[in-house]
Amino acid sequence: QVQLVESGGGLVQAGGSLRLSCAASGNIFGTKSMGWYRQAPGKQRELVATVTTGGSTNYADSVKGRFTISTDNTKNTVYLQMNSLKPEDTAVYYCNYEMYFRRSYWGQGTQVTVSS
After folding, report:
1. Burial class (CB within 10 angstroms; exposed 0-12, middle 13-18, buried 19+) of 68
2. 11 to 58, 78, 115: CA distances (angstroms)
3. What is the enclosing helix (H) or strand (E) of 33?
4. What would the pLDDT profile of 1-25 be if each residue is shown by its tens digit?
5. DSSP bridge partners of 91
6. Residue 85 burial by Cβ neighbours in a 10 Å radius (0-12, 13-18, 19+)
7. What is the DSSP string of 45-81?
8. Which residues contact 29 (CB under 8 A, 6 or more apart)?
9. For the chain, what is the largest distance between any 2 Cα atoms, rounded to a whole number of angstroms?
């Protein structure tokens, strides 16, 4: 079992920055990739950014150049640095671990609100 806890959300003005953290505990052997997803009011949950254990990253077109995903393996933590935030970035952000053998884990989410 893997437990994920997100933190770092909050209220910021457009153009501001936030850093989200996802602390993992439990048995994380077999991790294939880690990522961040978000769900805005009235919308489907969407991929924001992912990083594989090999270091390859992938970003949604809407956040490329503004968001950066990174990891600190000594702390079992995944980060999402969000710069140049826009009101349309407002959403609940969820941390995700994808494991080999068709398993995945989700955090409880952290609210990010960007005001205009």
Report:
1. middle
2. 26, 21, 7
3. strand 31-39
4. 899 999 999 999 999 999 999 999 9
5. 112
6. buried
7. -EEEEEEETTS-EEE-TTTTTTEEEEEETTTTEEEEE
8. none
9. 43
